[in-house]
């Protein structure tokens, strides 16, 4: 890994990184001094519970199967012992070979793990080299990178299997295998890839299986890769003690948009927010809706190029924008085992404590229809078709990235609120979603919208199929949280106060048609493809310019109404002048008036700009017997 050198040819990080504080519990792990400096550069004061338990066992050479909640330091728990053992082996051998393989379920997580690995090994010079082959790139380029025999390879199972088949990757000298988010790897349908990988490396490989749940699928992985592993099932007391305040708001289908509008315009939610929606169309519908009120947001989904997804997460963590609208289609499909799509809630999930079993409920594949909410939808097979009449030709939707995911694994930082705009289809998915907030001892809030059954399909433009079972799913979620000693509180809102905002909300929502959503999807995808492919090399050479690239710009697929961006004083709670100052004010005239139209109006006032015989000429002065021309 190359590092920037200063004028004295000394890596800048080496000079700036302070030494590890004496008395730190990391010192009890007896790690290499270079790794200790890497830990200090990450500002990690103390090891987490899973790190204290797993690292000593890993250094003894034992296989490990660990369950620990999201955000408890599982990545460092397997990276530190792997890096330590590779550094020890360098003292006796200088041979270049792939020593460690780290498998993850999504490309986003692969990029994150590779980045953390490089950060921890920043002071190891050329003794540790890392390659992420989960990225979409030309096979010849990937073959060339693997030809340099990196010490650690990070990838999804599919890319590893493909490189094994074409001979670009060899695992003959593999010593360490890590499968991160192992339950999700299995549910994403990588069984055949994992079997192919298991046949390609020698016996005696030390294996690490890390997961947020101990699902039954892990027995398959344990049989394929592990030899009598040590099972660590950690309760993560510090994680459970972190304050996630959970709320549920029962509302009508269209009131979801109204509540979101009011919350952001009146600053009822402060800090960074992740909004989970059911599919890609819903994400753009919500973005276009918020745009009309001047609320900026970024969209994250599996349709976007992987480079854009990683850059969106990176900028979101740096607080370049506050609102991220995420649709995690593959996480839902993964819960089904990718075998059968259905709108029904999982009947096998009657027992709340069976958290490891996959859910049978799914969100429909988001394929836009030609009309705007007029046809009766049949979502049994995931496509929007008419129930009656002659068979319609199915429209092929855009190809989604099966190795994409949002609600699991990714390291979102300083999230103040997780908003379940569309409720997930299982309590397991709910747990992973709200795990995005209240991390590292911080507090956070989780708010979920639930549509009562009597209000389902009462507002067709905003209907979403999975909401039919919201009440059943929420009952399971409440029971699951009560078993953990947590409660889900009702979020009460004043309907009378909301009535003041309804005319603005209705005008904005009506403008967001299905055609506008489709145009926004195409426009955003075109922009991101251009950015990811044609400008990739330019950004590599000029990294400072990449920081200026934003993903929360206006799509302008809907006619913007300037007056909607501002909330007048009489709509605000209490109607105070101080509150008005917080939300802004708009005058009677347009802020972005057309200059040509303005000039015409001025000329009209002066009596200029019209030729005789024009549209406003006196008809009696232009009349003649032949019916045309002047007298």
From TrEMBL:
In this chain, the stretch annotated as Disordered covers 1-21, 335-405, 599-631
Sequence motif: Q motif, positions:
24-52
* EC number annotated for this UniProt entry: 3.6.4.13
**Where does this protein reside within or beyond the cell?**
Nucleus
Q: Which residues form the DEAD-box RNA helicase Q domain?
A: 24-52
For this protein, the record's InterPro entries field holds:
DEAD/DEAH_box_helicase_dom, DEAD_box_RNA_helicase, Helicase_ATP-bd, Helicase_C-like, P-loop_NTPase, RNA_helicase_DEAD_Q_motif
| Primary location group | nucleus
User: Which positions fall inside the Helicase C-terminal domain?
Assistant: 243-497
Matches recorded under Pfam families: DEAD, Helicase_C
Keywords noted in UniProt:
ATP-binding, Helicase, Hydrolase, Nucleotide-binding, Nucleus, Ribosome biogenesis, RNA-binding
Q: Give the residues annotated as coiled coil.
A: none
Q: Which reaction does it catalyse?
A: ATP + H2O = ADP + phosphate + H(+)
- Domain named Helicase ATP-binding: which ranges? 55-232
Spell out the family assignment given in the record's similarity comment.
Answer: Belongs to the DEAD box helicase family. DDX56/DBP9 subfamily.
Q: What is this protein called?
A: RNA helicase
Species name: Lophium mytilinum
């Amino acid at each position: 890994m190359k590092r920037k050198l200063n004028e004295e040819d000394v890596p800048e990080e080496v000079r700036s990184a302070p030494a590890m504080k004496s008395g730190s519990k990391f010192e009890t792990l007896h790690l290499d001094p270079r790794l200790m400096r890497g830990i200090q550069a990450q500002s990690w004061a103390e090891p987490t519970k899973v790190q204290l338990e797993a690292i000593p066992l890993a250094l003894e050479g034992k296989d490990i199967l660990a369950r620990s909640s999201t955000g408890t330091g599982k990545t460092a728990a397997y990276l530190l012992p792997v890096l330590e053992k590779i550094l020890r082996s360098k003292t006796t051998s200088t041979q270049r070979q792939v020593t460690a393989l780290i498998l993850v379920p999504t490309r986003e997580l692969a990029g994150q793990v590779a980045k953390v690995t490089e950060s921890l090994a920043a002071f190891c010079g050329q003794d540790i080299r890392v390659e992420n082959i989960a990225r979409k790139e030309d096979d010849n380029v990937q073959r060339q990178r693997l030809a340099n025999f990196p010490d650690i390879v990070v990838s999804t199972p599919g890319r590893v299997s493909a490189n094994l088949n074409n001979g670009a990757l060899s695992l003959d000298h593999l010593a360490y295998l890590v499968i991160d988010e192992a339950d999700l790897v299995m549910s994403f349908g990588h069984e055949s890839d994992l079997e192919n990988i298991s046949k390609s490396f020698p016996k005696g490989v030390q294996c690490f299986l890390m997961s947020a749940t101990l699902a039954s699928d892990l027995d398959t992985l344990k049989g394929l890769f592990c030899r009598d592993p040590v099972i660590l099932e950690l309760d993560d007391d510090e994680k459970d003690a972190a304050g996630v305040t959970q709320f549920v708001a029962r509302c009508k289908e269209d009131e979801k948009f109204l509540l979101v509008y009011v919350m952001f315009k009146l600053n009822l939610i402060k800090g960074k927010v992740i909004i989970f929606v059911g599919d890609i169309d819903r994400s753009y519908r919500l973005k276009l809706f918020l745009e009309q009120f001047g609320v900026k947001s970024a969209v994250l989904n599996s349709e976007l190029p992987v480079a854009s997804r990683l850059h969106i997460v990176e900028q979101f963590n740096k607080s370049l924008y506050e609102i991220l609208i995420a649709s995690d289609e593959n996480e839902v499909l993964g819960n089904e085992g990718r075998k059968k799509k259905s709108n029904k809630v999982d009947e096998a999930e009657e027992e709340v404590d069976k958290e490891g079993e996959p859910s049978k409920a799914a969100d429909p594949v988001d394929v836009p229809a030609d009309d705007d909410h007029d046809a009766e939808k049949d979502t049994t097979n995931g496509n929007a078709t008419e129930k009656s009449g002659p068979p319609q030709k199915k429209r092929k939707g855009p190809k989604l990235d099966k190795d994409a995911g949002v609600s699991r694994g990714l390291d979102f930082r300083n999230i103040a609120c997780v908003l379940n705009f569309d409720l997930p289809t299982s309590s397991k998915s709910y747990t992973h979603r709200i795990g995005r907030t209240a991390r590292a001892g911080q507090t956070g809030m989780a708010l979920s919208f639930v549509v009562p059954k009597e209000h389902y399909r009462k507002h067709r433009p905003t209907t979403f199929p999975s909401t039919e079972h919201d009440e059943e799913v929420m009952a399971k979620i409440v029971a699951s949280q009560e078993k953990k000693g947590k409660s889900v509180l009702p979020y009460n809102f004043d309907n009378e106060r909301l009535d003041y905002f309804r005319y603005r909300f209705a005008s904005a929502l009506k403008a967001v048609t299905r055609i506008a959503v489709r145009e926004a999807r195409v426009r955003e995808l075109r922009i991101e493809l251009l950015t990811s492919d044609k400008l990739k090399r330019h950004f590599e050479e000029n990294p400072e310019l990449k920081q200026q690239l934003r993903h929360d710009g206006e799509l302008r697929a809907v006619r913007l109404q300037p007056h909607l961006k501002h909330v007048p004083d009489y709509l605000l709670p209490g109607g105070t002048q101080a509150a008005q100052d917080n939300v802004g004010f708009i005058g009677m005239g347009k802020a972005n008036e057309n200059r040509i139209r303005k000039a015409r109006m001025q000329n009209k006032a002066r009596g200029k700009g019209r030729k005789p015989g024009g549209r406003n000429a006196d008809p009696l002065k232009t009349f003649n017997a032949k019916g045309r021309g002047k007298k």
